Amino acid sequence: MTKPEKSPGSEQTAGSTTAPGESTGTAAEPRQGEPLLKVSGLKKHFPVTKGLFKRQVGAVLAVDGLDFEVRAGETLGVVGESGCGKSTMGRLITRLLEPTGGSIEFEGTDITHLGVRGMRPMRRDVQMIFQDPYSSLNPRHTVGAIVSAPFKLQGVQPEGGVKKEVQRLLEVVGLSPEHYNRYPHEFSGGQRQRIGIARALALSPKLVVADEPVSALDVSIQAQVVNLLDDLQEELGLTYVIIAHDLSVIRHVSDRIAVMYLGKIVELTDRQSLYDTPMHPYTRALLSAVPVPDPRRKAADGRERILLQGDVPSPMNPPSGCRFHTRCWKATEVCRTKEPPLVPLAAGHNVACHHPENAPDQEPGDTKLLREAGVSKS
């Protein structure tokens, strides 16, 4: 699906359109549409300990069984409330965290339990842009030292020298080569995020995981960074997994969108289908919360604001059955007792819900709502 065109005033990137590489400065692009990343049954449980002997008394089920693929050249957006496991998922697929269960395949190679030595060559192809540009850059190092660190760690000598390549990368992300000897405290938040992007691009990665790349930035700067990521994808053939809680950002940059709730994916489909015909009640509630600045347009859309009851349950003790049933206005007895699988209910539209919107029920015949029956949803 073609992404929206940039507005005439949107930012343009400078510099060469050639990706940096070890010798020639070019990177072999993966074939468009082929699975680049495949995740199956991915889990991450953080143990909870107590007492002098650190006896485990429970676990935080941060990620509890994810299945999805990321195709070469596309952008997969991941949205959900705070605490749903989005950032943990990003750190798992980049192997910054060790998975508790499941598997991660990158270009057909299982990287689930590779050690530091085994992951070293993979780091060239999988990079991450961190959420906070203030804490992800070492304040004692210059910009040149920060962006050149991947070359030194991987033992790569770019053509023309490291300094020349770093200055070219700074131009690519919209900074000046003269910034090479400056320190992070001399830059604004948006400029620091550009430095982080330049560092992530240094080794010509095939997959970039961006964890809330614009959430710490001013709104005016957010648009510039989002447009920069879009332009870099077209120029360098990148594949993105972008994690965010801002639905407007996700809508602008994504080809497909995964909606997460309490450690699980509840809906996965292309951007147009998600915004036009959301099938999961949680997705519908999220979309209803998007502010519409024009009251007349809001009335014309006829969107009903959905206020979810209660708080998000604890990931230490998630509800039985469907994890959203404690806050869902459509919940029935089967939602409380049986966990819905993530299955395709339309072409390319996967949903985990017994009573989806805009589609037949997965469990027909069970229509007695829990709130009408007076049954506790806990």
Automatic annotation (TrEMBL):
One of its GO terms (molecular function) is ATP binding. Residues 37-287 form the ABC transporter domain. The keyword ATP-binding applies. The keyword Transport applies. SMART domains: AAA. Residues 9-26 have a biased composition (Polar residues). It holds the Pfam family oligo_HPY. CDD domains: ABC_NikE_OppD_transporters (cd03257). Keywords: ATP-binding, Nucleotide-binding, Transport. Residues 1-34, 355-378 are annotated as: Disordered. PROSITE patterns: ABC_TRANSPORTER_1, ABC_TRANSPORTER_2. Coiled coil: none annotated. Belongs to the ABC transporter superfamily. This is Dipeptide ABC transporter ATP-binding protein. It comes from Streptomyces oryzae.
